[in-house]
Amino acid sequence: MMPVPSSVPQPKDDFQEELVIRPLHSGDIYASFQFRTLWETDFMRGNKVSHYRLFPKSLGQVISKFSVRELHISFTQGYWRTMQWGQPFLPSPPGAELWVWFQDSVTDVDGTWKELTNVLSGIFCASLNFIDSTNTVQPSASFKPLGIGNVTDHRFLRYATLPREIVCTENLTPWKKLLPCGSKAGLAVLLKSEKLFHSSFHSQAVHIRPVCQDWQCKTTSWELRQTLNVVFDLHTPGQGKLEWSLFKMFSRTLTEACPLASSSKIYIDITDDPQGEQFEVSPATHLLSQAMVLGDRRTFSVYDLTQQITFGTVRSLNLLIRWKSRDMLRPLLHAERYVAGYGLQTGEIHTLMYNNHPYRSFPVLLLDSVPWYLRLYIHTLTVTSKGKDNKPSYIHYQPSKDRVRPHLLEMLVQLPPNSVTEVTVQFERALLKWTEYTPDPNHGFYVGSSVISSLVPSIVAMDTNSTREQPLFSSFFPCKEESSYFMRVYTEPLLVNLPTPDFSMPYNVICLTCTVVAVGYGSLYNLLTRSFQIEEPSPGLAKRIANIIRKMRGVPPL
Amino acid sequence: MKILTLLSLLATHLSASSVNIEENAGQFFSSGHTNNWAVLVCTSRFWFNYRHVANTLSVYRSVKRLGIPDSHIVLMLADDMACNHRNPKPATVFSHKNMELNVYGDDVEVDYRGYEVTVENFLRVLTGRLPPSTPRSKRLLSDDRSNILIYLTGHGGNGFLKFQDSEEISNVELADAFEQMWQKRRYNELLFIIDTCQGASMYERFYSPNLMALASSQVGEDSLSHQPDLAIGVHLMDRYTFYLLEFLEDIHPSSKANMNDLFKVCPKSQCVSTPGHRTDLFLRDPGSALITDFFGSVRKVEITMETINLTEPIQQVEQNFVNEERQKETYSYVDQLPVSEIIHQKPKQKDWHPPDGFILGLWTLILLVFFKTYGMKHLKHIF
Fold first, then answer.
1. In Å, what is the CA distance from B245 to each residue of A386, B60, B61, B130, B150?
2. What are the φ/ψ torsions at residue B262 (nearest 5 degrees)?
3. Global pTM value
4. What was the pLDDT predicted at A23?
5. Which residues of B are catalytic?
6. Do A197 and B106 touch (CB under 8 A)?
7. Chain B CB contacts of A168 below 8 Å
8. d(CA B247, CA B224)
9. Which of A85, A269, A373, A388 could form a disulfide with A22 if both were Cys (CB 3.0 to 4.6 A apart)?
10. Confidence of residue B317 (pLDDT cuts 50, 70, 90)
11. Is the complex ipTM higher than 0.90?
């Protein structure tokens, strides 16, 4: 094998991994893994990329073949309880969610979208091939690109959710295979499915986008972030004490960092108790770091896995966290959604958005995508805050077409301080064709979560300076101004019963009809067409012998 | 003289060893297949059919253990039991009570799941008639030298197998699918195992060559389930597949066990139903077919002494540093919620259409009435 000539510079790639552990108010614990691969290459222009090192080849080929500018896919099991757990670092709705920005050079966006969903369903072992035009929407103002870019024409954006999608080990296995170290070294050894799925909330996601290479931002590199958020329930392992360790959470301890990673760190949120009175972390560490995340300045103890002293003499790291009580993090924005009404004909969807800030109001963009079989009556749409009508400053509504596309409703609403805003709309349920029902129609039909994107005022000044090295969990959403930060909140998905026919009816009808026809008509037919003949009963044995003898004698029989 | 004897000895030795080599070579290639595939299907939905998923996963586990890689296995599970909310131990599917053996494992890859397991998809996988955008992991890319193992389990009856409580596949359809596979040269030899009630009826109608079939019960008999687990609350496995799993756990990749041993699995005393098998369409003697011909993936390696000359690698053309121009422009992140921009986002300008019939008719009427009342001579005043 001849070595590659050195005149062609190999693009540089970099891999970082981190784990953030945040104890929650109710005693549960929230762990967030982030794995980031940065690669200075260009999939779009010029030569085809052929040598992959840290960046997974399957995703690289997807990007170049389908001219993808940004790709965000998440698989979630469970619903994030904002009021009990605060805000997540990366929000995601229950089920599967996929949104993609295509490059400007794509001519047939819908056809490329369909092929992309099929390829991704093979990569992630999920039934993403059920994404088609009946559940895909093209938002007009939400879901702006999270990576760099100048022009945003929403014709190249597609968004779809599958609220029914199940997440299990078969989705985790290919996700782990995309990591450079796999699940053999580094933080990924903690990802054991038996513990991860025995939790209140589990979400794994893949985000691909172009980012600035440095603070000057003259060149771009591709960033692949793989995130996994999990919330472990206090009462599941049986013990009720507010004590957690890596072994209790993941049934594993750490022995080494991933050799291919340039940085491998664990952050533990100790903001509420920096002195260590109510809170205890062992083994102790002197490394502290502060970060501006979710509008608040939080303090973290840092464990650097690339340093050998972190592992101590036993060569393994098992963090132990003990705390007595914790303050409740009051989230500023919170949302709920439910279906009201009775019967199987009509209903009403209510979406409630809570603004818990005492004196500031902020704008909120609500995106609702309702399947076509719930026929929305938009003339009954009302938006009320504090009892008074609140007119949205921007409404975009695209009506549904039966069996072709869903309803799309986007509204920009200003939420007044310390209030509840209620959005209600009435709907009617459609009767599906009998072949369109799923094999278990009495379970109900799902309506995907609403997405609420907002700029929430922050308590401390956010860091817009991107020159400093920031931990991964605080650098996901780009921050343009200091006084507010961008956030997305997802509501619950809805489960709606549609009028279901009795599928045993054809069988019963056929049996009954055939019985009636056979018994009723058959008897009548026989009575009318049968002719009756009188028949002599056959004589006894003695008479028969006598008749034979008489025949032989030539005498007429008896 | 001595040289002659030496030469003759050498000649006979060479001929003997060449015969040996030929024999070995003959044994090496006796089965005629070069790759192995497996299609494992569970057709039942709902929590109380846990045992069907456990059946399929235990065959999946054996087949993976004996060497067939995930890329050559098409696994179809009609419902999710491992992460079902009724499962007291999530991400596990057990086959033995007291939770001894977790057949779900840590690296399972399910290709068709949930609503995707339909009769149509199953037949399309077998015959290869899939839409062009189907990914590789969902395709059966077998050729005429592939040995395929097909395993079906679920609820069945005399001549049919129920898919997901809403549709059925009949034995005639299955036989025709296999005939299509034979005509398209999609298999070398095919082993068909079915674990349902009255399973033997499913292989009655086969008519393509090189098929061997096993079923867990005869026509008129029910296949019974093995043992419930009180913690999980459902029956964990079916009897036939339970004893099949026990039998396969003893097989390793170099085992010489053959099909006759497989026919003896689960006699009537253990299974309560009578397992059946069919070998009349199989061209070889079943005693010469090894278990690993279907359940394992024994790779055949050919050693060659030829040398191949490698050509010079293609010289990369130096990258034109057009980057110079691109470096002038600075990129920036997009504003996530530009409120003023959104509010003033103008709606799409509708294309101008010429006025349609109604407007034209209305204007014509107005003009007619005007000229009728005032007369044509006033035209010159207007223009």
1. 65, 10, 9, 32, 15
2. -70, -35
3. 0.85
4. 87
5. 155, 197
6. no
7. 80, 82-83, 91
8. 18
9. A269
10. low
11. no
